[in-house]
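@channel sequence for tomorrow's demo:
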Amino acid sequence: MKKRKKILFLVDIDGTLLKLDKTGRWVYQEALRKVLNKDISIEHIDWVGTTDIEIIHKIITESGIHGKESINKMHEVFREITALFKKVIEETPEKIKLLPHAYEISEWLYNNYYPALLTGNITEVAYMKLKPFGLEKFYPIGAFGNDRKNRAKLVPIAIKRAQEHYKTDFEDVIV
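structure tokens (generated this afternoon):
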């Protein structure tokens, strides 16, 4: 492999590498319904620029659950989301589409720079989405929607993990 330029690229998944139909919203709604044992509307949720912790926490607290119980429920919802996404990907892989040139760009980034993920998805779901397209090998590290509630706080986490993983300091970081 030729020498890489010491630039870290932080890459999102949804809308950057992949496109998911409305199944993603259904997965969240179904997971919340199962865990909270009631129908939950998520139509009012603005998903852009958020993390899974932020979304799930908001809905759980809107349902009247607070404190330690809300954290326990959030972890239950994450387990349900992971199981449901696994089922969707296995049974209906066509629900997730690779965006044009996402594979080629990911490969190019990996061969020339240092790519990492910066996504609101929880870790397991992020890699589950990438795997059918062989993209997971290009993004061995990152920061995820289960790391912090505030998405802006994911950037320093991604940088630190990438420095440790790649064993290098970066001259620049591109988000």
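heads up for whoever presents: The beta strands are 7-11, 18-20, 96-98, 114-118, 142-143, 172-174.
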